[in-house]
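Render this sequence as a predicted structure.
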Amino acid sequence: MLVSGPAEIFDRRVNANHSLNADRNDNAQDTQAVYLSTNELKNKIDEFEEISKTGHPHLLWSEVKNKAGLILGCDADEITYTRNAPEDASIICNGLRLQRSDEVITKHARARRQYCLLARAAQPQRHRGQDLHALIRSAQENVERIGALSISHVACATGQILPIKTIGELAAPHGIWYFVDGAQAPGMLPVDVRDIGCHAYATAGHKRLLGPKGTGQLSVRRDALNTTDPPYGGGDSANGHWELISNGQFEWTCTAQRFEYGSIITFRLHNMPYGELQNLLTQHYQMRTRCIYEGGLDALRVSLHLYNSPAEAERVLEGVTAAKKL
C-alpha cells in the first residue's frame, strides 16, 4: 500500500480519541480512566488486526457462507468466494487432471478455449446448447474418452434451461467430472447442487442475485475437493501451519477454502535482506509494504489491489530494480 499522508495525521486522531492526562496520574480515578482507555485502544487494535487478515471478521465470513449454502443447496465448507463465474471456470480448468487424450464436452466456444488453454485438453468437443440431443449422443458414443463436461444451467443468450440433472445422471456412472456454469440461474431458479449431481457449480452474485460485481461463488462438492488442484494458494488455503522454505510443507485445507487466494505479490532479493528492502522502498519510493516471515519466507509483500494506479505499480518495479543493482 502506498503512503497517502504523514504519520502525524494518525497520531493526532489517536490522541484526540484517547487523550492521556499525564499531569494528574496521582489521582486514582484518572489513573483508572487512563488504564481503561489504553485497554480499549489495545482491544480495538486487536479487533482490527483480526479483520485485516481477511478484510472481515471470521464470524461474519462463516455466516455469509452458511447463507450462500442455503441458496445453492450445499454446506458452507463447500463454498469458495471468487470474483465471478469465469474465474470459477478458470480455477476448475487449471486444476482438473486431464490427459491429452481426454475429450471435454463444453457448452460453447468460450468454455472450449478455457479448457484448451488452461486445462490443455487435446480434444475439446463443442456443442451448441440448443442441440442437446447431439450432445447426449456424442457423450454416449465416446463415453470412455470423455474427461469432463462443462454445461450451462441457463443459456445466457436464449434463456434456455438445460436438463442438468439428467446430464448428471448420464455422467455419474462413468465417473465423468461434471462442471455446471450457473451464472444465470440462482435468484431466478431453485438450485440444489446435490440434486444436480455436479462436482462443481459456478455462479455470479451480480446477475440474478442482484449483488455487486466481484461476488462470485464456486461450490465444490466435498468428495471432489481432492480431484482438482487449486491453481493458486494463500495463507488461508493451508491446513494449519505451513513451512515452504526448510521442508516445502504446505497442506491444503480440507474445505473449499483452499481455492481462495489473494491479489498479492510476495518476493525477495538475493542481494538484500527483506527488512532493508522494505526500508529502502519506504524511504525513497514512499511505499508501504509488509514483511512476510510466516512459513520461513523472509520476503516482502506488495498488495496492489484496487487503490493503486498503474503509475504507482511502475514505481514498485522501479524501486525493486534499483535495489537489485545495489
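Summary. Residues 265-324 form one domain. The longest strand covers residues 146-152.
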